Amino acid sequence: MTEVKLSDVDLNLLYIYLVLIEEKNVTKAASRLKVSQPAVSRSLSRLREVFDDPLFVRNSHGLSTTARTDQLAPQLKEMMEALETLIQPSEFIPEQSTRRFVLSTTDFGSLTVLPKLLEAFRAQAPHAVLEVKSWDESTVSDMGNAEIDLAVAVLSKEPPAGVKGMRLKSDTMVCLARKGNPHITNGILTLEGYLAAPHVQVVLGRRHQYAVDRALTKLGHKREVAVTLPNFVPAAAVVRNSDLLLTVPKLFAQDFAEISPNLEVYDLPFEAKSFDYSMIWHDRYQHDEAHKWFRKIIYEVFEEYKHLYDD
């Protein structure tokens, strides 16, 4: 028997074979397939060539199967059902999912965004897992390795090719200081007080100068950075127990001040550029139904923040 390669077989023949097995009648098979009876007969002839077996024999009612067809029928049915599933649109059912979703963000994102995100995540997908990984400037270039589903961060430059981005919300920088800080005058943070105070600076990645320092440089001023830390939460904790000032995003400052009654939020005494929070993900996830659901939840969390904080 000559070896037959799958590439040489029209897969439509296998579907016709399955219908013939189920109908055991060429006329009924043709009606179900919406083709002519001679077309089904020609397909049966080709199937006999492929399998080197009669496959069916005629009887008074139509067709009866050969031993070879009886052997192949269960495998053929299982295979055709699998192919049907393969070509169907993917469906994501949150309440049944056990998928692990990996979010990359800063500790600021974990403090500010994560509680609201987790509430919606757990309510809709109680069996899924949310894993949070730390973010730095190099993370965006690593998004192609499939270890991160999505990141929420402030981008200093356009994401590389293959990485999608969506603006979520604009924010501004403000200053955190403890109540009674001697550099605050009558409840107002002046430029003189800001420059006289020692500062805590959160250093993310390899960035050496921040927007607030560039703004001060344009005005001919420079602040004193006394402490640098890699995360927002410990930096805010330092300010809570010292006379240092911390310049941070307004979204973080307001949320942290809510859980730290001895901290106050002050507008900066000079103009600094606003910035955007972005949601970024790799192109491979663009049409993934589960990923679309995850992106929608994060987008809705920031829509809620817009309602709460935007003027």
Biggest sheet: strand arrangement: 4-3-5-12-6
Q: Helix and strand string, N-terminal first?
A: HHHEEHEHHEEEEHEHEHEHEEH
- Computed over alpha carbons, the radius of gyration is 32 Å
How many E strands? 12
Overall form: rod-shaped
- Which second-level CATH architecture of the largest domain applies? 3-Layer(aba) Sandwich
Q: State the distance separating the first and last CA atoms.
A: 79 Å
Mean pLDDT: 86
CATH superfamily of the largest domain: Periplasmic binding protein-like II
Task: Quickly name the level 1 CATH class of the largest domain.
Answer: Alpha Beta
Q: What share of residues is helical? A: 40-55%
Total domain count:
3
**Unreliable spans:** none
Could you please describe the fold and organization of this structure?
- By secondary structure, the chain is of the alpha/beta class.
- It has 3 domains: 6-87, Winged helix-like DNA-binding domain superfamily/Winged helix DNA-binding domain (Arc Repressor Mutant, subunit A); 94-169 and 276-309, Periplasmic binding protein-like II (D-Maltodextrin-Binding Protein, domain 2), CATH 3.40.190.10; 173-267, D-Maltodextrin-Binding Protein, domain 2 (3-Layer(aba) Sandwich), CATH 3.40.190.
- It has 11 helices and 12 strands.
- A 5-stranded mixed β-sheet has the order 4-3-5-12-6. Strands 9-8-10-7-11 form a 5-stranded mixed β-sheet. Strands 1-2 form a two-stranded antiparallel sheet.
- Helix 1 (11-23) packs across helix 4, helix 2 crosses helix 3 (37-51) and helix 6 crosses helix 11 (289-309).
